[in-house]
Amino acid sequence: MSFPHDDRPWAEAAAFLRDRLMPAHRLVAPDPFRFVVPRALRFAQLRAERPRGFDWVVVHKGQLDRVPRGFLLALPEEAVPVFGNEVFVIFATAPSADLADLGESDHVRAFRNALPELAAEAGAPVPRHAPEIQAVPRPWLQPGGVPGTARERAWQDELDRLVVDYLGTAEGLSVLDIGCGSGRLAGLLTGASALVGVDLADDALARARARLGAQPGLAFARMDAARLGFPEASFDTAVMLDVADGLADLPAALAEAARVLARGGRLMLTASNRDSLPLRALRRLGQKVPPGGLSVQELTGMLRAAGLTPLRLDGVLLSLGWAMPGASSAFGPLEEDPEFIEASRMLGRRCGPDHALGIAVLARKS
Question: Does residue 38 lie in a domain region?
């Protein structure tokens, strides 16, 4: 199907976008829009992306079944409706001052009224709060360094994308989330028969229980990753996101994860890369290198020693300015720049685990 330029509602939506799209903007829209905005992403291409990761979201009110359910239900909390007609609603995540919030207009109200029915079909409530995004210290930053909120969101979005890519929805599987924090995985692994989160942070566990404790199949417990209180072969899948760098004894934690996995079970793990391209550059220049992290060889060696065979490795983000403390003054203005963040995301994917800031691994218990 080409773009229907002679159809007034379609033409109005396209004209609205053309007048406002900037080169760095990200857009997701129904398939025909790629004929008028070639860089537009189709809804069928979405994996773990959320509305907040785009500048513009175009929704066809008659084709809501073609939009990923979780993405659609999150739209009212993460974006503002700024255009509406009898066919389309266009949302902006950071609308300019000249764009009014059309949330109470008839065109947008029709869209909003459909959400409770969609949520009931999915067996999930309409979201009332956007997922928690916390900018936390990263091992490759200078001591106490914290990345900007937008860049931290990009990091978390990349991990979410890889979770879905590696594990799908975990349909019918029992999952152990080691270092669960406030329970972010519950929104991704929606097909799991059971999801148990463990952490040592009481405040994070309290948030997880407050947000998710009433949902069936979910449980949270205070537990050390190196001393898991579960019998052998209790889980089909285990996940350790953003955990490895903070563990006192990573080999012991990996051995415990392997112990509680059933034979053939999978572990997904992420870690910061101490041999990333920016950190290698710092060493070459004789500069001080932030502590922490693992090389690909160290990480895969630890996995094999625990009885886990690496199946796939991916790189997560690559940004010279973010990784090099000495460059912070020059790159600081780009810390929250959407185009620069998106370039960091794509570079990480393309350069792979040997060069990116982070390493993602999927391994299987032998």
Answer: yes
Q: Whole-angstrom Cα distance, residue 131 to residue 73? A: 12
Domain identity same for 155 and 239: yes
Give, in order, the Cα–Cα distances in Å from 257 to each of 149, 266, 267: 31, 10, 8
Give the range of the structural domain holding residue 312, as residue numbers without chain letter: 149-365
Domain contains 159 = yes
**Torsion sign across C-alpha atoms 46, 109, 32, 14:** negative
| 93 neighbors 157 (Cβ within 8 angstroms) | no
- CA distances (Å), origin 331, targets 142, 322, 335, 348: 14, 8, 7, 18
Inter-residue contact 41 to 14 (CB < 8 Å) = no
**Domain end: 87, 122, 157, which one?**
122
Same domain, 178 and 92: no
Contact (Cβ atoms closer than 8 angstroms) between residue 191 and residue 169? yes
Closest CA to 289 of 277, 301, 307: 277
The closest of 86, 92, 35, 24 to 58, measured between CA atoms, is 92
Is residue 112 domain-shared with residue 166, that is, in the same domain?
A: no
Q: Three-state DSSP class for 49?
A: coil
The verdict on 298 and 204 lying in the same domain is yes
Separation in Å, CA 190 to CA 151, 160, 173: 26, 13, 10
Q: What is the CATH number of the domain that holds 213?
A: 3.40.50.150
Print pLDDT tens along the chain (366 aa).
568 888 899 999 999 998 899 988 999 999 888 888 888 888 887 877 789 889 999 999 888 888 888 888 889 889 999 999 999 999 999 999 999 999 888 888 888 877 765 544 444 444 443 445 555 667 666 555 666 667 777 888 899 899 999 999 999 999 999 999 888 898 889 899 999 999 998 888 998 898 887 788 999 999 999 999 999 999 999 999 999 988 889 999 999 999 999 999 999 999 999 999 988 888 888 887 877 899 999 999 999 999 999 999 999 999 766 655 555 556 666 666 777 788 888 999 999 999 999 999 999 998
The identity of residue 150, as a single letter, is A
Counting the structural domains of the chain, the total is 2
Answer yes or no: are the C-beta atoms of 250 and 359 closer than 8 Å. Answer: no
